[in-house]
Amino acid sequence: MTMPDQPSPATPLLEVTDLAQRYTLPRESLFKPAAQVHALNGVTAQVMPGRSLGVVGESGSGKSTFARLVMALELPSAGQVSLLGRDLNRMPPDELRRARRDFQMVFQDPYGSLDPRQTIARIVAEPLTALGRIDRATLRERVAIVLRQVGLRDADMDKFPHEFSGGQRQRIAIARALITQPKLIVADEPVSALDVSVQAQVLNLMQDLQDEFGLSYILISHDLAVVDLLCDEIAVMYLGRIVEQGRPADLFAHSAHPYTRALLDAVPRARAGGVRRRRGAQPIGSQASAAAGCPYAPRCPLADQHCRETAPALRNVGDAHLAACHHTDAVMALPPVVAEAG
Amino acid sequence: MPSSTRASRWPTCERAADRIRRHRGNRTGRAAATGFWRRALRHRSFVLGAVLSLLVLGAALLSLVWTPWSAYDIDVASKLHPPSAAHWLGTDVLGRDIVSLLLVGARSTIMVGVIAVGIGLSFGVGLGLIAAARKGWTEELIMRMSDFTFAFPAVLSAIMLAAVAGPGMVTSITAIGIFQIPTFVRVTRGSANAIWAREFVLAARAAGKGSFRITIEHVLPNILSILIVQATIQFALAILAEAALSYLGLGTQPPQPSWGRMLNDAQTLLFQSPMLAVYPGAAIAIAVLGLNLLGDGLRDLLDPRLARER
C-alpha cells in the first residue's frame, strides 16, 4: 500500500460529490413501474483532516443514508465518495477492505450493534480481525489499550455485552471504532439512545478522543446541541438535500434557511418561570413527491410563488456559509434564537 | 444466556432487565451457564423429556453389548409366550424375545433419526444460510425448491424412492432426510434474516467482513439455539416416519428388528395377542414424547425471555 500517512493539508480527508441514492419501493402492481424514493439528492460535502462535520435533520432527511454511503455499505445511485482522494466505490473489494481501517462507524443503538454472543474482546477486535490474522496476545493488548482509552477496564474484555449498561456499551462501540486508529469516525446518532446524563459522558469522551488523536467525525444527529459540541461545520439536511451549511456559530446566530430556523426554534428549553407553549408542528414532507420548486416550500412560512416554481440552489450567504433559499436575507434578519447553554 | 432475539423485540424490557441484572452484580458467562443447568433441572418437561430420550438412547446402547436373548434367533416352538421370568415381555410369532427386539429396535430408530436429521440439518441449514446471505434470485430459487419438496409427504416420497431404489433402511433414511431439508431451510432462513437485519451485522460489514464470515461468526451462533430445538422436534418426526415406513414394509427389512416392523407383524395377531402391538407402540410413543418434551424444554430454556418467567 502506497498511501501517504500525513496527507497535505490541502487534501480533504473525505470528499463527497453529487451523492444521490434512490431506493426502489416494492411494486404495487405488476403493470406499474415501481415507485422510487430519493433518499439522497445531490449532496456535496468535504471534511478536512482533523475537522468534523455534523449532519442534522429530521427523520427521513437522508442522514442515515448519507452515513451508510460514506461508509461504503451501499453503492450510491450517483456521485462519488472519496477518502484521501480515492473513490471508495471504484476500489477493488480487497483494497476497500484494507482502506476501511481509516474510517469506522459508531451506531445508534448500543443494544443492537454488539453481537450478544461474542465477548467484548472479540467485538472490539472485529475491525482488526476483519483485516487479517493477528496473534492473540497482540490482539488482546490492542483491545486493552482501546478499552482504557474509552474508560473501561482490561477485565471487561472477557465479559458479554449484556453485562454492561447502555453508556458502557456505547463506549465499547467507540472502542471498536478506535482500534484501527482511523482518521474518520462516522457516528450515526451515537447518543440518542442514551439517558441525558450518560449522553454527556459519551460526548465528552468523543471530544477527548478528538483532541487526543486528531480524529474527524461525521456526526449524524437530530440534536443541534450535540453537533454544536463536536463539530466545526454543520450541514442541515432536508429531504435528501443539504439546505444550509456553515460553522455552528454562524448557523445558530444567523440561520439563513427557514428550516434551520425551525429546527432551532423547536429545541425545548428549560426556563424558570417560562410559559409553556405548544410548538407549531408542521407535517413532514414526503420523499416520494418530486415536484418542481423548493422542497421546503410546502412547510415554509416565507414561501411565495417563486419558491413553488423554482428550486433554490445552494449559494454563499457569508464566509463559508451556504444556504439554499430564495429568502435568505429575510431569514437572517430575524432576531437570533435565545442562546443556549451548549 | 446471551440474547439472540431479545434486543430487537423488546428493547426497553431488555434495558430494564439489564439494569436489574447489574443491580444483582455482574455475572460472567460461566455463571450464566451454571444458571442454565439450574433452570433446566427445575423445568419439568425438560427433565421428563431428557429422561425418556435417555431411556431410548440407553436401550440402544445396551443392545450393543447385551440383550436377554438374541434378537435374531427364531424359536418357533416357543412362539407367542406370555411374559415370564425367561421372556419378560413374552415372545413374538417367531419366538423372538420381545425385550431383545425392543432394545435392538431402538438402535435402528436412533440411527434413522440421527442420519435423517443429519441430512436435513446439513443441507437445510446450509441452503437456508445461503438464501439469507445472498438474497435476490438465489433466495427465491432455494425457497421455491424447498416449497416443491415440502409439497410431497415424506411417506409418498419414500414410496417413490422405494419403487426406484428398492425398499430398505437406506431408502427410508434418504427419503426422511430429504423430507427434513425444507423445514430446516425455512427455519434457518427465517431466523438468519432476522439476524442479518441487526445492527451488529452492519458493524461487521463496516469492519470489512464478507457475507461468508458474517454468516459463520455472527449469524450461525445467534440462530444455533433455534436450530437445536428444531432438530430435536425433527428427530421425533423422523422416528415416527421411520416407524410408518417400516410398518408399510418400506423401511428396515427383516431380520433387522425395528419398532415399525414389530407393529406390522403384530397387526395380523391383533386379536390373539394384542400386547404384541402395545409394546412397540409404547416404545415409539415414549421416544417421540420424550424428544418433543425435550424440544419444548430447550426452547424455553434457550429463550431468555421465557427463562425469567419459570
Name the largest protein-protein interface in this structure.
A-B, 36 and 34 residues
The CATH superfamily label of chain B reads MetI-like
What is the percentage of strand-forming residues of chain B?
under 5%
Radius of gyration of chain B: 23 Å
> How do the SSEs of chain A run, as a string of H and E?
EEEHEEHEHHHEHEHEEHHHEEH
Strand tally of chain B, please?
Answer: 0
Q: What is the string of SSEs of chain B from the N terminus onward?
A: HHHHHHHHHHHHH
Strand content of chain A: 15-25%
**How many E strands of chain A?**
12
Tally of helical runs of chain B: 13
Shape of chain A: globular
Quaternary state of this entry equals heterodimer
| Global morphology of chain B | elongated
On the 0 to 100 scale, the average pLDDT of chain A is 85
> Helicity range of the residues of chain A?
25-40%
Helix content of chain B: over 70%
Average of per-residue pLDDT values of chain B: 82
Largest sheet of chain B: none
CATH topology of chain B: MetI-like fold
Lay out the secondary structure.
The complex is a heterodimer of chains A (342) and B (310).
Chain A: E1 14-24, E2 36-47, E3 53-56, H1 63-70, E4 78-83, E5 86-87, H2 93-99, E6 103-106, H3 120-129, H4 136-149, H5 166-178, E7 184-188, H6 196-213, E8 216-221, H7 224-230, E9 233-238, E10 241-246, H8 248-253, H9 258-265, H10 305-309, E11 315-318, E12 321-323, H11 328-332
Parallel strand pairs in A: 3-8, 3-9, 6-7, 7-8
Antiparallel strand pairs in A: 1-2, 1-4, 4-5, 9-10, 10-12, 11-12
Helix pairs in contact in A: 3-4, 3-5, 4-5, 5-6
Chain B: H1 6-9, H2 11-24, H3 29-42, H4 44-65, H5 98-134, H6 136-150, H7 154-165, H8 169-196, H9 199-206, H10 211-247, H11 259-267, H12 275-302, H13 304-307
